[in-house]
Amino acid sequence: MKYTPPILLIHGGAGDWSKRDSEKGLREIKNALNRGYEEFKRGSAIEAVVEAIAYMEDSGAFDAGIGSVKNAKGEIEMDAGIMHGNTWRVGAVASVRVKNPIKEALRVMLDGKHVLLVGNRGEESLKEFLGNSQGGDTVGAVALDEQGNLVAGTSTGGISGKYPGRVGDSPIPGAGYYATPRVAVSSTGIGEIILRVLPAKEVDILVSMGFSIEDSIRSVINKVTEMFGKGNIGMIGIDSKGYAYAYYNTVGMARGVKDKNNEKSFVFEGEI
Ligand SMILES: NC(=O)C[C@H](N)C(=O)O
């Protein structure tokens, strides 16, 4: 459906939400949506995306920030990335242990020298928060502001029991997120599949060929389902005209959208 900028569309992960606290997930999606949307008053799509994701990292209801799942050694290692579509600027961090990985990713993007930094570089330790995982899922946000800025970001604790040092799709542009002058997209699901398919990049290619954001996201996810079966991917996306869409092949995906006149959020059925 078409929305009026400024628009914020977020997700709290695709997965089996029948086994999680979906009411809490939905409540926290609404809070994150409102927290991020506030930023449009003073900031741009960048601040809206970062603050919505930082809220979800701090919530504990999702597999990101303090809610991150643990690796095989019982430690938290998080990945995050952000991209500003209009300028192709991008910043990401992988295998970090900081309070808000999305803010670290933003620092990498604003610094501009590199795209992806790996490992801890002496930031605030998350040790005191270890063990807060409530089994939620990866978080992401996409936004289009009134100036036409398209921004996408994703943040995750990865996959429970992963090998130490494992990096998923979430900090990789074209996989866990992607933004161009045409679209902003965030993915969630099994990183080992998403890294093979690069669905966020594919959505931009399809939109550049003239397909709608809805058809593009649907066809990429249907392709993943054909190749790898169900239960492994969800995506949200927005285009430069304000068309927004969310789709997944899992049992649910926490998600929500907000503009001046609309606010919607769902975990299970519901059309963005
Ligand atoms: N739940 C997720 O979306 C996990 C994330 N895509 C990863 O594989 O690291």
Automatic annotation (TrEMBL):
GO terms for molecular function: asparaginase activity; peptidase activity. Pfam families: Asparaginase_2. Keywords: Autocatalytic cleavage, Hydrolase, Protease. Its EC number is 3.5.1.1. It comes from the Archaea. InterPro entries: Ntn_hydrolases_N, Peptidase_T2. It catalyses: L-asparagine + H2O = L-aspartate + NH4(+). One of its GO terms (biological process) is proteolysis. PANTHER family: L-ASPARAGINASE, N(4)-(BETA-N-ACETYLGLUCOSAMINYL)-L-ASPARAGINASE. This is Plant-type L-asparaginase.
